[in-house]
């Protein structure tokens, strides 16, 4: 095998060269140093990715939104434990908007397009309320199609928006 004649300046057929001994015994620190230098150079001279907010294209689910009824946010707590609840007799305009949140209030900023579905209580079937995409919708018209125990499901049509509280539970009276 004359192909591998030069290995770091040594010839394999020289009488004093023992390739296995060269790798195993003499230079484990040389190997570690080469790995360290390679890692350090990669981390030091690599250019970081620009922040998502400076990116020309929007990242999926980067804008938080909430469901509003008559300018009031429906969710009782904007956290993973939060729920949207309405009375079966609720009235007004339902819309989804990007939101400015503070401890005292939730301010709708920009209405976004959404679709509406109804979750049937008896069969757990989700059916589309309409083929239309809405920016606002009359809640009474949706409630007319609901049966006792049903819930309303709101779906964004653009992946830019996150809508974590997308299910509206209807509180049915006695």
* Total of DSSP H or I helical runs spanning 4+ residues: 3
Strand content: 25-35%
Shape: elongated
Main sheet: strands, sense, barrel: 6 strands, mixed
Quote the average pLDDT: 81
CA(first)-CA(last) distance: 91 Å
Q: Write down how many β-strands occur, each being a DSSP E stretch of 2 or more residues.
A: 13
Helix content: 10-25%
Cα-atom radius of gyration: 31 Å
Secondary-structure-based class equals: alpha+beta
What pattern of helices and strands is seen along the backbone?
Answer: EEHHEEEEEEEEHEEE
Which quaternary structure do these chains form?
single chain
Q: Show unreliable segments.
A: 1-13
Itemize the secondary structure elements and their pairings:
Elements: E1 6-7, E2 10-11, H1 19-26, H2 28-45, E3 63-69, E4 72-73, E5 84-87, E6 93-101, E7 106-112, E8 114-119, E9 126-128, E10 137-138, H3 139-145, E11 151-156, E12 161-162, E13 167-171
